[in-house]
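Retro notes
What went well: the complex prediction finally ran end to end.
Inputs used:
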Amino acid sequence: MKRAIGCLATLLAMSGVAHAQNTVTLGASVQETGALANTGRYYRDGYNFAIAKINESGGVKVGGKTYKLALKILDNQSDSNLSVRQYVQLLTQDKVNFLLGPFASDFALADSSVAEKYQVPMIQGGGASDQIFSRGYKYIFGTLPVASKYFGSTIAMMGKLNPAPKSVALLYADDAFDVSVAAGTRELIRKAGLKLTEDKRYSSNTSDFSTLISEVKSSNPDAILVSGHETEVLNFIRQAKSLNLSPKIYSFTVGVPTADFRKALGADANYAFGMTPWLPSPTNKDQYFGDAPAFVKAYTQKFGYEPDYHAASAVADVEAFAKAMQAAGTLDPKKVRDAISHVNFGSIYGTIAFDSAGQISLPQTVIQVQNGQVTPIYAQGIMISKPQYPMPLWGKR
Amino acid sequence: MQLLAQILANGVLLGGLYALMALGLALIWGVLNIVNLAHGAFIMLGAYVGYYLFSLFHIDPFVALPVSMGALFCLGYLIQRHLLNLIARAPMFNTLLITFGLDVVLTYLAQMFFSADFRTINPGYAGANFTLFGITLPLVRVLAFLVAIVLTVALWLFLSRFRVGRAIRATAQNLGAARLYGVEPRRLYALTFGLGAALAGGAGDLYGVVSQINPYIGAALTAKSFAIAIIGGLENPLGVVVGGIFLGIVESLTALYVGPTYVDVASFGILVLVLILRPNGLLGAAA
Amino acid sequence: MTPKLKVALAVAVTCALASLPWLASATILQFSISTLLLATLAQGWNIIGGYTGYASFGNSVFFGLGSYGTAIAMVQWHLPFGVGLVFGAVLAVVFALVLGIPVLRLRGHYFAIATLALSQVMTAIVSNLEIAGRNTGLVLPLLNGDPLFYELSLALLVLATLTVFWIAHSRFGFGLIAIRENEDAAASMGINTTLYKVLAFAISGIFSALAGGIHAYWITFIDPVSAFDLSLNVKMIIMTVFGGPASILGPVVGAFVLSGISEILSSAISSVASLFFGAVIIVAVVFMPRGLADVLRRFRKTGWRYFSENVKKYRL
């Protein structure tokens, strides 16, 4: 028994990161396996890529000393309880200096309490729910735009369409992120003077939408807004086709910007509207990557798939730490925390500056899949390109 | 009225798909007394067989159906012959645990080899539909319903008309019965488990045409298959079809009248009620 | 060993464990809290599954009720933690009485599936309850006090183990074993089987619920999927069966060994941890189907043949 404990202790010690001099270690627990692995990989790869790039450029200067960055990453197997324990382990055993976040709002909600408890800042690019930032926590920062405003630009754009949609159906999953989106969207719909014909909450991981679709079809709204997970969005579109549901416009919070989505649906992905806080525009200049298009090229070459806003957000998280450490001139977690709240810099992802709650403010660009390509349509009051509207009936494509 | 008719039609068609998913589970449970927690993983693997045949070789999913079934039959046969037979007479917990372990391993391997990307089997007619008395009927679901009926009847005929089939049924009553039919029990067990896995594989192939697939769809499908198998009863494959359709209709009506978040309350609540009130299934002999 | 010596040893080990917060690092402490809670859950399952022979998949429901009882009391009603724990335990007892009576009439796989379905029903019901924060969950107040959580978990495990010890040596326990071996014969011997089974279910439930309450306050965030996590129930079964069902210390040893393995795997070879865990289960079930306790008892006599004999005994 004693020997067993000895072995255990050695193994636990071995798994820690060897601390070389002048290294700042960032710790993260992300979904490398399990149901969320598909999106979790953007964070794993984004973090790794940004850290490699920053080290290539010579590292980070903090108070006259140059530090290299290192990453300690653990797989939470898409289990939020495990992820909480892993964050504690990262802080107490692996002695990482700062924390990067997991994917998804419910994880960020649980894990941010570790950051708060240990007073070590966490910058996370995977959770957008307003709930994360409404608890008065001081050590959590987020680089996704506020969930409640996800559909803001879409609804603004709808007002400029001809003929403008008058009635809307709102469908949303019952998890933290999507409930936040729905609460905000309901308000936006009311303010825009649109008629809300259906307002339906469905269970996360629903795979059969036939009842919902038939119901929506019988109330025949002009627009359908769906806030859910990518798997649900894929099922929804396929089943909408097979039940002949053709609104004038439909839009989805997730899925549309990813390459995966277009590959899985083929031609059926066309005409779907969505949104992204990030498009790889050359105006997004970055100290380490040059600009956003250069980042996309390098990322795709390195990892074999295209990055979307999740990956860009992950890169911004790492860069925000680099900037904050430089500004603070120390690695003291409290001082770095204060420096994070004051950062203001341009990155491949956009301008990074946090509000008093710790969240970033980025406009959502409305996008549409046109002939298999993601096309930016509308942002900040400007119609960027012509939307394909109204959506043709399924039989007439 | 129109809406209600449409919802009922949706429910019946969903039920066909459900029946197909649960058929193999009911067979394995009824005959071998193994509660196979890896059943959903088998469905998932069947879906991937269909997906790769379609995306690499452009083989139509309905043509690929026997291939999916054959591949899963082999896998199921091997698993029973070389693994599950080793614990055939161990306490009940052990079969639950080992199939759970199998589920974890198969899911992990699926992510390793197939990646966590979301896939669909998307032939040109996947979204096709036709209208009957104002009700929209998705073509693929109607076909899947027919496949479910055909496979159920075929299984029923096999179990009642063929010598091996009768040996399988006799085994459900008495483990040693296989010998009376001149079949080696080890082989018979493997054969039965293989058949169950094959049915799961077939269900997976068609599931991929109506829904997205990824390595993690299995757990929810296993749970749902339990509900259908129990409601329908384990004695007769035809009961599973009734169970599937019943559940499909109940779920659709719940989603319409109570709300889409109450679907699981209804389906698993009914499962508990059926177990308490009619443990042999809706069609089975009363308790 | 004489009984007195055994008691002395048990007290010494408990005291040694109780002093851990002053000796160990925060990571070890956290690992220990989660292991102690798992051991308590396994011990709870041991009562209904090991002694009574009912393969419950409903113990994660008790855990969830305990978590939510505590969370609702603390977050919605602003009551102290202790009251929350009691409230959670009361919920578990009510559940055990109301649903235990009809469900415990079922035997074998049917009972297992009924409880499995109940856990799905409870997940779905809670995710529709406004007071439970629906499916988005509840955030509990932060308490930076791992030593406290550790001592609470340890006390709970000691209490659960003492209860199992009492069961193993009491008339009640013999009644449960009789039910496991042959329920009809037990009934004809004059044992009130329904009463015995429901009691066992409720006791099992109280411990699971208390563990759930501690866990909720410790982790500070719960939602239906994590609180009613079915794989937690599977873990309880695995730990009990691995350690030795219907033994007093088997589930505790099983929990310590298996969570040790899984913790090392998930931090050392993070991304293949789940594969190994699945493989360990399969291998353990095939080669040591009656648990670690049985291996320890018989390995000395039979040597390596122990494993092949097991296979020979249970194979077709």
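What we learned: Residues 72 and 292 of chain C are 39 Å apart (CA to CA).
What to try next: split runs per interface for comparison.
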